Amino acid sequence: xxxxxxxxxxxxxxxxxxxxxxxxxxxxxxxxxxxxxxxxxxxxxxxxxxxxxxxxxxxxxxxxxxxxxxxxxxxxxxxxxxxxxxxxxxxxxxxxxxxxxxxxxxxxxxxxxxxxxxxxxxxxxxxxxxxxxxxxxxxxxxxxxxxxxxxxxxxxxxxxxxxxxxxxxxxxxxxxxxxxxxxxxxxxxxxxxxxxxxxxxxxxxxxxxxxxxxxxxxxxxxxxxxxxxxxxxxxxxxxxxxxxxxxxxxxxxxxxxxxxxxxxxxxxxxxxxxxxxxxxxxxxxxxxxxxxxxxxxxxxxxxxxxxxxxxxxxxxxxxxxxxxxxxxxxxxxxxxxxxxxxxxxxxxxxxxxxxxxxxxxxxxxxxxxxxxxxxxxxxxxxxxxxxxxxxxxxxxxxxxxxxxxxxxxxxxxxxxxxxxxxxxxxxxxxxxxxxxxxxxxxxxxxxxxxxxxxxxxxxxxxxxxxx
Length: 467
Ligand code: NAD
Prior knowledge:
The chain is α/β, with parallel strands linked by helices.
């Protein structure tokens, strides 16, 4: 077992923030503790007939709100400490972005690449079955979503197993991050990366904060290095590139690539799909090991792979002006202290990667209400806009062109509404934590924890459990 204790790191951040609150000690203890952890071992038959024993967990950190919510991770590093820490982060994250769920997380200790799709399907279905047996899954109980090593396919298997086992009109809401054809929602796959972009853009638009770290306002022209070209990393890099940033470096397991004038993220992803590696990409320099790129000079460093990437070993060499924690727990507590002392602006995981759970919340709402967003209002909106445009034409005595009329009268569809809800959430939450940061003269991570602790505390107090 490694010396790195993830849950302890989360709790150190919690303890620091709690000194800025005046809540009852017992209440703070209750908020911090993990309410339940289900540890499972089960056999799976491999394609060659042999049997593997699989270890898996589901942690529900806080039941102050139901359902609990959090991703499902497949990795050979999965252990109870990691899953508990990630579940706690989910509680705080949901509270920061005002998503009414308790925090949870699941994990299966497997190296995904070492198993065939058929084996992963058997593992996923058996894991789901075990959760159902112990009431650790359900639309009003605990709702998984994709995380490291999982995606739409795994969510579909979970849904199908739940549908077969649970007779409920709401069984579609037992999992989020599903394909749209299976009750998923437009915009969920890219939501975390898009949210990372919205939140960082809001931070960069604050001229005073940018001046403080020696940067000019705006995303445009910012040099960005991203670690991890998976779901979150790819989409974050893509939206930054589209927003005018220059992606100078991408780090993957096999190594990194660097190009000072910028990498085309879509072309690089295609290259990786074709060759199995980001290395040897046209016009880019290979950097091995890839982790060396974390220490390259840039404006924004986005770790989007795993926890414990910026730690006591490399923190003194980090030259980024901003660190945007798209991954969960990429910076250790000590490294974070060192960075903030040096004036680096760290945008914490508990806020910046909350786009995924925000859009998962929208998906869950869609599933329990059994209606797609925009269905009731879109035509009505379009008619109203059209009437307004006609009234303007009459007043002006001049007609709009057909294209202009079309543009002016367009009602919002599901994707427009999802993206607008996500943008609103990230901007509003950033302003809130930045205000708390200013008020207490602290850092953004501590500010996010202060906000989260206060939100969860109010919930417990309203339940009448604590003074
Ligand atoms: P993913 O499995 O889609 O992608 C992870 C990528 O990181 C993979 O391409 C993998 O090869 C790469 N990687 C692994 N180790 C690496 C290393 N040492 N250096 C460089 N690259 C490495 O996972 P994801 O869903 O993108 O999740 C990434 C992180 O974001 C995790 O910390 C996860 O908890 C967090 N997160 C994910 C979501 C979501 O919606 N998927 C939401 C919030 C937070």
